[in-house]
Design a protein that fits this description.
two-stranded antiparallel ribbon
């Protein structure tokens, strides 16, 4: 690491100035983007520590600590105390992070200019904010009556997680419509854009169909698994229906830009949610013949519907893959929903039609401030340092308080995802490791909500022709 870069990082930790002394090899960065990346970095750290607390190695090493001993003394299942301590730790770490973002939500309400002293707090003093975040997370471990805290905090997590899911679904479908509309505009001048639409439509549908086939092979059998079969059958049928609906003449008449690309994006997401739901389902109780006694009798026994080999390596890979996918989604949504254009889409205000094609579909309509072709002032690129563009000189480019609200919901959703929507009570360890009904129904209900919201975007223009809907 170069010396100027190190000096710049130290300077950033202590004040509100932008990190302008980083290495010159780095591209220029906007001050608003740098700020959001720092808050995202805080969330990454908190999530990583939470994952570490769920590992068996850490749980074993903490068994002799005072906090661990006190926790086990109030848990009804001492045998499962190590696993329960990891789950309890995730709840408390995420509680500290949620308090951190909630505090900044209150501090930044109503900020419209960077000249406001509160804007300086939001955009700087990173070292002090890191200490505050660490203090809140550590202090949460000293909350008395841990079992009561977890039961109460669980409901806050459920509410926040569900709110984030709804927000995530709305923006996912909006993203699909925006992407398709942008590339259709490009196809008016260059037919290669149509090839891109066809390619990704085929790719997403192929992935979705493959996913459902694998679910049938690995999560059903000829004897039971009726719940899994029902979820797979219902969701696959719904996706076929909405795909035909997207290209139906009635929908095309009122929404010409509707097509199979949007349906394929929704199909891929619903496929993932269906898999996640059936993978979270608890074992099925079946009557199994017990031959160890004479005469043989039928006895109820939990049987997993998963037909593959249950190994620790495969479980770890599946967990890591799921966490990476979910974290990419929540960070993408968190950053996208704070811009003014995305808030207009959420509240259905203003004209949000796409005006030009873009190969970077993740960035469509996400830029704010300034007229086309206007160059933002460069704050610092001297002494060979990194260029920092001050894009908030005339006013804030995004809502600070709404940004922290999104990260508050993201924290709660991440907490519930890491703990698999864990509910304390009897058989704590089994409900966490083998899945639980709450996690299964939350995920399958989310898949149905995605279909309903997408269908509404297709039918709303036809049902209310006198109203204007963003395309």
């Amino acid at each position: 690491m170069c010396i100027p870069c190190l000096i710049g990082q130290v300077a950033c930790c202590c004040g509100s100035a932008a990190c302008s002394l980083c290495c010159s090899c780095l591209p220029s960065i906007k001050t608003s983007t740098g700020t959001r990346l720092m808050y995202m970095f805080f969330l990454v750290i908190v999530t990583a520590i939470s994952c570490i607390m769920l590992s068996s190695t850490v749980q074993t090493s903490l068994q002799g600590s005072t906090i661990f001993t006190q926790f086990c003394s109030i848990v009804n299942s001492p045998r499962d105390c190590a696993v329960l301590f990891g789950v309890d730790a995730v709840y408390k770490i995420m509680f500290g992070a949620a308090c951190f973002y909630f505090l900044f939500l209150l501090i930044t309400i109503g900020i419209s200019s960077t000249k406001d002293c509160r804007a300086g707090i939001h955009n700087g003093f990173w070292f002090l904010k890191f200490l505050a975040l660490a203090g809140l997370c550590i202090g949460a471990f000293f909350i008395p009556d841990s079992s009561m805290f977890v039961q109460v905090w669980l409901y806050f997590g459920m509410v926040g997680g569900i709110l984030f899911i709804i927000l995530q679904l709305i923006l996912l479908i909006d993203f699909a419509h925006t992407w398709n509309g942008s590339w259709l505009i490009g196809a008016e001048d260059n037919k290669c854009w149509l090839g891109g639409i066809a390619f990704f439509t085929f790719l997403f549908f192929a992935g979705s169909i493959t996913g459902f086939i694998l679910m049938i092979v690995y999560y059903t059998d000829s004897i039971g698994c009726a719940t899994n079969k029902a979820f797979i059958g219902v969701n696959f049928s719904l996706l076929i229906i909405v795909s035909f609906m997207a290209i139906s003449p009635k929908v095309q008449k009122h929404q010409p830009k509707s097509g199979l690309l949007q349906a394929s994006v929704v199909a891929t997401y619903v496929t993932y949610l269906t898999y996640s739901a059936i993978a979270s389902a608890p074992p099925e109780i079946r009557s199994v013949l017990n031959t160890t006694v004479t005469p043989s009798v039928l006895q109820p026994k939990p049987v997993s519907c998963f037909q593959g080999a249950q190994t620790s390596t495969s479980d770890t890979i599946a967990l890591v893959t799921g966490l990476v996918f979910i974290f990419i989604v929540v960070i993408y949504v968190s950053l996208r929903t704070t811009t003014s254009s995305e808030q207009e889409r959420l509240t259905i205000r203003g004209n949000t039609d796409v005006e030009e094609a873009s190969a970077c579909c993740c960035c469509i309509g996400s830029s704010d401030g300034g007229e086309a072709g206007e160059k933002d002032p460069l704050v610092s690129d001297d002494k060979g340092g990194q260029g920092v563009i001050d894009d908030e000189e005339d006013g804030v480019t995004y809502s600070y308080s709404f940004f922290h609200f999104i990260f508050l919901l993201t924290t709660l959703y991440t907490m519930m995802t890491l703990t698999n929507w864990f509910s304390p009570g009897q058989n704590w360890e089994r409900s966490f490791t083998d899945g639980n009904v709450a996690a299964m129904w939350v995920k399958i209900a989310t898949s149905w909500a995605a279909v309903i919201i997408y269908v509404w975007t297709l039918l709303a223009p036809a049902c209310f022709p006198d109203r204007e809907f963003p395309s």
